[in-house]
Write a structure and sequence with these properties.
The complex is a heterodimer of chains A (307) and B (533). Chain A has helices spanning 2-29, 34-39, 45-55, 61-73, 87-122, 127-141, 144-158, 170-200, 203-210, 215-252, 258-267, 271-299, 301-306. Chain A has 13 helices and no strands. Chain A is an all-alpha fold and 307 residues long. By secondary structure, chain B is α+β, with helices and mostly antiparallel strands. Chain B has 16 helices and 22 strands. In chain B, the strands form 5 sheets. In chain B, strands 1, 8, 9, 10, 11, 12, 13, 17, 18, 19 and 20 form an 11-stranded mixed beta sheet that branches. In chain B, helix 8 packs antiparallel against helix 11, helix 14 (435-443) runs antiparallel to helix 15 (461-472) and helix 15 runs antiparallel to helix 16 (476-493). The radius of gyration of chain B is 25 Å and the shape is globular. The chains are: A mainly alpha (307), B alpha+beta (533). Chains A and B meet through helix 2, helix 3, helix 5, helix 7 and helix 11 of A and helix 6, helix 13 and strand 19 of B.
Amino acid sequence: MLIFVLRRLLLTIPVLLGVLFVVMLTMELIPGDPVALMLGDAATKETIARFREHLGLDRPLAVRYVRYLGQVVTGDLGRSIQQNRPVVDELAEAWPATVQLTVVALALAALVGVATGIVSAIWPNSLFDSLSRLSSLFGLSMPVFWTGLVLIVVFAFWLPLLPVGGVGSPAHLVLPAVTLALPSIAMIARMTRSSVLEVLREDYVRTARAKGVGERFVVAKHALRNAAIPILTLVGLQAGQLMGGAVLTETVFAWPGLGRLMVKAIFARDYVLLQGAVLIFAMAFVVINLIVDLSYGVLDPRVSRQG
Amino acid sequence: MRKWSRLPFPIRAVLAGILALGLVALAGPADAQKRGGTLTIVRPTDPVSLDPHTETTAPGAWVYYNVLEPLIYLDEKMTIQPRLATSYEVMSPTKVRFKLRPGVKFHDGTPFNAAAVKFTFDRAFKSTPPARWASLAGPIAGAEVVDDLTVDIVTKEPYGPILRTMAMLYVSFPSPTAVQKLGDGALRAPVGTGPFKFVEWKTNTQIVIERNPDYWGEKALLDRVVFKVVPEEGARMIALQTGDADMVMFPSPAQLPTFRKDAKYVVHEAPGLRVVYIGFNTKLPPLDDVRVRQALLQAVDRKAIIENIVEGLGVAPKSYLSPGVFGYKDMQFDQLFPFDRAKAKALLTQAGWTPGPDGILQKGGQKLTLNWIAQRGRYPKDGEITEAVQQMWKEIGVDAKVEFREWATVFNESLQVDFARHNWTFGWATTNADADYSLFAQYHSTQVRPVGFNRTGYNNPKVDQLLEAARRSLNQTEREKLYGEVQDILAKDTLWVPVYNTKEIVLTRSTVKGFVIHPVEYNLGLWKTWLDK
């Protein structure tokens, strides 16, 4: 078990190296010079050159890559180009907001999604099932920036119950978390429904029923546990998805998290800040996947025995 | 000392006072100013910093304009007014002497004096890298202390625009003690002399400033101002409607007409300093022929574009400069080159272009084809304008092929020595509000790509000579006349299709009183603003 975890953690190193390389290469390839953007329409060539030299941007990509890696190993993520602040400081300010938002959204998605899915599976083709399938189709198809704005109009403007955006109280969290969770709720509900339905058709469920086990116990113990692996995999994937969705949701709701920081870094071509933010995202992704993989073993002992 | 070199501050002040008294009398007691309250402003992004040393963009400038002060500043009518200086005197063509206001203290108690001025100039020009505004400061070399309340600003060469440059909001002064003590921290917590004091900055959430009770001048009316970040345009508009915000920066253009009709809101507008235009590359045939350029200008129905595309976001430009810029002169486009398709066609016929079988004009087997680079979204409606003009040119038989690229690409390409496009759609703002800034950089022959911003490749010895004279002179009346002459020549030589002059637009609730919008986007002065609620 420990070796499994260690091996997986070691594997993250090449993943992160690759991610960083792709980010740096992309920033190199997309048009736009961070210094020109920073100094505006009328900066002289001389000033631009001085700034580029100061920031080390006059060096080739390979040199910058190796240098950056050297820094990262010592825990130094550099200074942001635009604000000239340690990237670590900027990330430290932003990540709690994103974690708060994604954790709440994920919990919401898992709870509501799984519950809806189970109810749909127990009474397939009922009115509830049809409604939930229809609304999950809607939830999946609507982009978060649109649902976000609609929710703002309805719950902050027409019925002034919740704040328009920003942070401060738990009420501020409601709209962004719901917005972010909606597509995931839909995905999880659909997956739970089909997964539970499938298991309910299995022979051992029929056997369980035949030997007189109560329906509630059949669903909770026999069906759900066996249906859990695909659902859990999906929830894990959704965690990554939510971090991606947070970029848009944070913008709509003025939520001061990592997603906003990344958008800002991209527009300003602040590659140092962007690399730091991507590094955090990539690490979070790897860790979540690891947790999901480990939990397979808990749910299905066969997995850890093979591993 | 020459007579013109003294700015009649006292006379201006008295006149302004009389005018203000008159207005107060007219307004009556119903509009009695109220003290107190918190003004909440929503704007799209967080600043880079709150110190002009590293922040020259609007989100930071909106805040520090209320915290830090320059020696002299431009009021809403774009006239120079005293601030931390009480008067100035031109000592020589390369030296201007400022008398500083006595008894002024920074928010941390440090006295404001000549040493503080020198400190900021040294920091701006001698640190690595230099201040971000240093490249906007022309040949200014630095500050020299004469005595505690007298400072000389010295330039490397005679520099006519020095006053407008010194009046830029970037040339304002933080406390040297705070900068030395806090280091980089001072960039995020400015300590100035202004009517408001910095309180806190929560990254990507909000910045708070509060009234400075010890301000040397007339004290601010508001207790506090909160600048919130709301990136999404729609959400900013809703925040205003729900009362979560009192003022919106960058309001949604599409929603403005509705808000204009509603008495609960006020749309504040002023002509801005930017002209959005379509440029002509005079180095590339057929645009080397002035008749072709004039024909293209006359083929553009600029009125229709302003009314139908730009709508409320801009006004018809009367020059390559905005009216708020020192040296601006009406270039009389409507008299010289009014929209007239027949006239445009006639000009092209004169230049030897005749319609081909496909309707496109040709000369010697060559079609009249133009190669044009533009971007979408850098300036309001830039893409739509480009397409409209392309269509208008098509109607007189000119085939313009537009390539839309990302803004930074257009920007960089248009400054390359081998720039091979006939046209580009761009905007130009006269940041320091002095004609030199725009005219010298864009039309002096030494500024042709790749050196400077002369994208048109324009080369006219007469214009060079006028621009040099205007730059060297510190006689503002003479300078104004010289820039007038330059604009008359440029009008006939037709280097741009000036499409619209931007407007500065701020939307507030009608409870926000006393706010006057400034033609310079960055100058968001809130010390006279108060809340009627």
